[in-house]
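Obj: model holo form, ligand = adenosine-5'-triphosphate.
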Amino acid sequence: MLILTDFLGKGSSRLCFKHPTEAKKVVKIPSRFKEADTFDREIRAFYAAQSVLNDFIARNAPRVVDTNLGKGLECDAFFDDDGSLSKTLGHYSENGRICSELAEQLDFFAYNLMAHDLFFYDFNPNNFVVQITNGKKRLKYIDMKSFCRYKGWCFLKLENICAPLARLLTKRRLKKLFRLCGLKC
Ligand SMILES: Nc1ncnc2c1ncn2[C@@H]1O[C@H](COP(=O)(O)OP(=O)(O)OP(=O)(O)O)[C@@H](O)[C@H]1O
Ligand SMILES: [Mg+2]
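Output (holo structure tokens):
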């Protein structure tokens, strides 16, 4: 069992801790009981998106681990050259705008999702981190639990009927992200 002590950050549904034994990993703990259901969805999303999003996501699949705080999701962590944990996209948006280096990557990220019918609903800027290596900024999508193929209605095998709706929703959420980053779309 992993004993988690070093808190790194939080979103609206999970707490993120330093991994106690693996320097390049973090462990995410749901702050609400039912959120543990999302682990499976996030693992499936990783495999579904891996070949399309490759450099935009972690290299290794997340996995469920036992911790002193209950079940957690062990994920690759992103660190900058100086050893600090990479900061969120929100952090790099100055006066609601991001630099062209990140804008190009965001554009390519969105293009890949739409071109391959990979539908996600949550593109909050805090679901991306910007990793700085060799002076370059690299956009990483670190929260894939909004993957929609595994939403309730999809369990009813309605994926094909609902695909246009899922596409529309993904597009809308991407547009919102672009607006938040001061970009046209
Ligand atoms: N792999 C990672 N590398 C670096 N920092 C991370 C990583 N995963 C999470 N974080 C940090 O922890 C925060 C919360 O993580 P995450 O987005 O997974 O939580 P959440 O509660 O599921 O989010 P939401 O509010 O979107 O539901 C992130 O905004 C980020 O600052
Ligand atoms: Mg999040």
